[in-house]
Every structure is written in structure tokens, then in C-alpha cells.
Amino acid sequence: MGQPRAVVIGGASLDMKGRPKDALLPGTSNPGYIRISHGGAGRNVAENLARLGVPTVLLSAVGDDAAGRQLLKATEAGGVDVSRVLITSECPSATYLAVVDERGNLALSIDDMEVMKLVTPKYIYAHRRWITQASMVVLDANLAPAAMKSALSMANKAEVPVCVNPVSLALAPRLKSLLPQISVIVPNADEAAVLCGLPVSDRFKAISAAQRLVSMGVDVAVITLAEKGLVYATSEEGGHVPAIGIEIIDPTGGGDALTGALVYGLVNDFAVSEAVRLGVSAATLTLTCTDTVSPRLSLEALYDRLII
Q1: At 276, which CATH number?
Q2: Is the dihedral of CA 138, 142, 146, 147 positive or negative?
Q3: The model's pTM
């Protein structure tokens, strides 16, 4: 691979996902289906980008174990350069456990991302050449705060735009003070409410929240609203893109697919309004398969589902 157009710094994990056959009953065993796939917010975005033809390097850490080897093999097969991923015997590879209800909506999840503590400012600095020469850097909030600040500072000095995925409600607060350093942010409704301090109970309030995030320093704010689609805002425009009506098979990875397609559009100089529509198309494709990253993802598949 030559010089990458995208550098993704974030988590890579083995995803275990369970779905009951009938209504989910708490406190007892539920007959259902369990699937294992390759995930992690950063890794997912990287594979989505690579499948869309963007040369992408992943900076992350995995354990020196079977799960780590599986993750690296699968990610490389998806087209991502994983040659700089840290392999360690200090921690096991990250794992994500999700339980969805009978309709495919997330009921609860637990993630063990302890290995990400090894993605340190020193590790970031060692890979500064790729970061400072990229077209865009993508970060996920699994990064330790010091590593996040180091990556943002390095990219900002080189005038490389940075897209950030807050990942979860628990991790989103660590981004509040960093918003002026972030070019693009893609929270869901709950994460956006934490970041900007406004309630996000409907799409009209979501647009206000996106506009607030822009006033707080980001260039592009995209707030995902599940079955209600998404809203977006910049200093010049904003709007709502409805979701595409589908039956959800598995919600895991939908937001990461959206982020990957959004970044694809932005690094290829698409208008924000078109880039977010590509994102909705990518999320739709991913939500209708059991894999965290759809093996069917391609530009052709995106445009087939595109909302005009």
C-alpha cells in the first residue's frame, strides 16, 4: 500500500452477539442464536473504508492470542493495512458482548477494551508520518484520553481533519473539552445530548443539538437517530435524512458503516449532504446482515440503496 488516505485509530474486538427467538426474558436463559464476528468501532470503520476503495491503515492493539490473530487476518482480508497494529502478551484481545431483543434492537452490551491502554501517546508519535500525511484521521473514544489528545494535536498541527466516533454513552463525556479540535463528529442521540447539553428527543431537537455542536467548534456534526435516520449540520447548512425502511437483522456495526461511508464521501470531496446519504445507505446494508461489517459493501451496493 502507498500513502493511506485514511488512518483509523481505535478498537479492534471479537464481537459475540446473541438474539432470542422470542421475547427477551431478563434473569433467565433465552433460547436463541449466538454469532461471533470481527468488530471494534475503529476496526469496523477501517474495513468499511477499505471496502469502499479508500487506502486505510489501522492503528490499534490486539492480544497475542487466537482472537487477535483472527482479527488481524479478517481485517487484512477486508483490505486494511494492519501491519502497524500492536500485538501484545500483556492483555488479551478486546471482546464485545451484545444482546439484542427479538426485534433486533440492542438490549445491553459489555465491552472489554483493556488492551487499548497500550495505544499510548508514544505509540501515536511513532506513527506520526502516517497521521500527518493522511487525508483524514478517524478516532474512536476507546482511546485513552492522553492518546486521544496526542492524536488530535498531531493531526491539527498538520491540518489533517479528524472524524471522531464517541462509541458509547459512557465514553462520550471525555470528548466535550476536545470539540474545537474535532472536524467531524458522529454521535447518536444520547451521546449528542451529553456532548452539547441539549435534550435530543426528536429530530427537530436533534438538529438544534447538531447546530450547537457546530457552535462549540466542530465543522460537521452528524447525529444518528436509529429508525428516524439522521440529522446533520455545518456552519452553512443542515438537514434530516430519513432511514430506509428495513427489517433489522443485527444492529451492531450500523453506525460504524455510516461513519465509514461518510468519511469516504468527505475525503472524495462530496458535499456533506451527499456524504451523509451514503452513510445512511451503508448503515442500511449492514443492519440487514449478521456480520458487523457487511461483506457485500461496495460503491455499487451503496448507490443501489441511496436516498435521493
Answers
A1: 3.40.1190.20
A2: negative
A3: 0.91
